[in-house]
Amino acid sequence: MKDAGYEVAVYGGDGTGPEVVREGLRVLEVLREGGPAPWHCTEYPGGGQYYLRTGREWDPEGEAASHSADAILVGAVGWPGATLPNGDLAGRALVLGLREGLDLYANVRPCKLYPGVRHRISGEYREVWSPKNVDMVIVRENTEDLYTPTRGRLRRGGETEVTIDARIITRKGSERVIRYAFELVRARGRGAPEDGAKRLTCVDKSNVMEGCRFFRETFDRIGAEYPEVERDYAYVDAFAQWLVRNPEHYNVAVATNMMGDIITDLAAVLQGGMGFAAGGNIGTQHAMFEPVHGSAPKYAGKNQVNPFATFLAIEQMLRWLGDRHSDPRLREPADRLERAIARTLASGAARTYDQGGTASTRDAADRVIEAIRGEAR
Ligand code: IPM
Ligand code: MN
């Protein structure tokens, strides 16, 4: 436990990132009202737009802070035309760079549909008043696979042009993320909505790929240490349909990086869309939390986007800090925030455009702040 409080380094980044982060910081302020401050947030510039202005993805101070902070909050990165000389996205340092640099090996994406949230699976808004069927966590390996920079292009042009992206799956990378997922099943109070089973699903393509065969073998080897966890298996293509058809079957799922990237966005539809999708990038010493919707340039500066993914990312961050430091000063506000989010969503009073509503980003934050304060009285 750190008596002086935890340092949180905050990077709003690009587009709508600074807007949702601004509201997140207001919520964090309200959560600590009336008590000593168990955390301090410091904002730093960075991202693609910053790169266009300065020629750097972030400044040295912000970069150093990402290594020394107790936790990191990122809004979003990416801006049209902001590209590094090698063709990469400018701002990647703040997301992919932190994953690599701080070895944030587990990407943890909770997928829960809150009462009062609408989903649009068939293109229409649907009320789901009893969303008891969607409550899972997808754990994605976050440092290797097709994301390792083992790639290239033979610039011969014409018919002989060749590109290659090598898929790297290592023992260390697989073991640690699979172990993380088994531990998460153990720590999670509840099991799958369907039957309460403490189930962990291994999502892979082991009927074709060697790396996936290895990943599944590792899953079984480590799983033997967790006899109370039900081992479940799905080829990724079949998983895509089962996820949508029978989400209640899933409790925790674990996947390699690229497949995990795809299935987590698919899963976000079940929770009401990317406006509710938050991700934790977790390592042994460091962690970075983010709403995963991206910078949405079209909506930048309009005060329209859904800030709930940011609030959920903040909740995840407070829980991680609280667990890591066994500090109830963080668990308690995380619980309060979750209750305020759930109550606000259930009331339907904070629906932004993506939910078919008219609330602004600021309005939605105001409703959550009222819910926090309403409970305190
Ligand atoms: C995510 C994003 C990133 C990824 C992008 C922005 C590089 O889609 O966090 O899921 O592919 O991992
Ligand atoms: Mn993604």
Helix content: 25-40%
Strand order of the largest sheet: 2-1-3-14-13-4-7-12-10-11
First-last Cα distance: 28 Å
Secondary-structure class: alpha/beta
Output the number of helix runs.
11
Q: Name the hetero compounds present.
A: 3-isopropylmalic acid, manganese (II) ion
Strand content: 15-25%
Please tally the β strands and state the result: 14
Average pLDDT, to the nearest integer? 94
* CA-based shape: globular
Low-confidence stretches: none
From the alpha carbons, calculate the radius of gyration and give it in angstroms.
Answer: 20 Å
Q: Tell me about the biggest sheet?
A: 10 strands, mixed
Order of helices and strands: EHEHHEHEEEEEEHEHEHEHEEHHH
In short:
The protein has 377 residues and is an alpha/beta fold. It contains 11 helices and 14 strands.
Structure description:
With 377 residues, this protein is an alpha/beta fold. A 10-stranded mixed sheet has the order 2-1-3-14-13-4-7-12-10-11, with helices on both faces. It contains 11 helices and 14 strands. The mean pLDDT is 94. Helix 1 crosses helix 9 (308-324), helix 1 (17-31) runs parallel beside helix 11 (361-376) and helix 5 packs across helix 6. The chain starts with 5 loop residues before the first strand and ends with a helix. 3-isopropylmalic acid is lined by residues 95-96, 261, 292.
